[in-house]
Amino acid sequence: MRAKEKATARLMDEWRVKGKPASASASEMAEVVLPAQTNVLGKLLGGHVMHMVDIVAAMAASRHANSYMVTASVDYIDFRNPVNLGEIVMLKAQVNRVFTTSLEVGVEVFSENLLTGERKHTTTAFVTFVAIDEFTRKPRPVPPLILRTSEEKRRWREAAKRREIRLAHRLREKG
Predict the structure, then answer these.
(1) Which of 5, 105, 111, 132 is most buried, most CB within 10 Å of its CB?
(2) SS (H, E, C) the chain
(3) Which domain, by its residues, includes 58?
(4) Count of domains for the chain
(5) Is the full-model pTM beyond 0.85?
């Protein structure tokens, strides 16, 4: 085993014992909505929102796992309110639950009108990622999630229900 692989293995052993708090994965990003990102009605394109959701969710997943991450599934994305041309779109992501080699990240998207200061919750999404070992390129374990708040515990419980539905759906497709 090379020195880097040994160091990674030692770090993984430490994480398996200690875990990482959900707050350590918190990731945010923001940008102004420009004309090239909108449809003919001046609303942010849904595909662009999905792209940004995947990016901020990957940031949160990587922060938790300190690993390369690949998107495995998007269980849910709900567009509640449009984001208008010229508004700021803000995304917030955090790991909800860790499984063995995968984890679920919750993402909330908000818009802010620069002229009025009004903020709206525009989108919610849940994205599952798999950790990939830097050397073998195969799935690898991720550190446990330490839950500190009642909100984190609620999100953890709800993530288990979504995973159960996702896995049942996957089995139906194979059958």
Answers:
(1) 105
(2) CCHHHHHHHHHHHHHHHHCEEHHHHCEEEEEECCHHHECCCCEECHHHHHHHHHHHHHHHHHHHHCCEEEEEEEEEEEECCCCECCCEEEEEEEEEEECCCEEEEEEEEEEECCCCCCEEEEEEEEEEEEEECCCCCCECCCCCEECCCHHHHHHHHHHHHHHHHHHHHHHHHHC
(3) 3-174
(4) 1
(5) yes
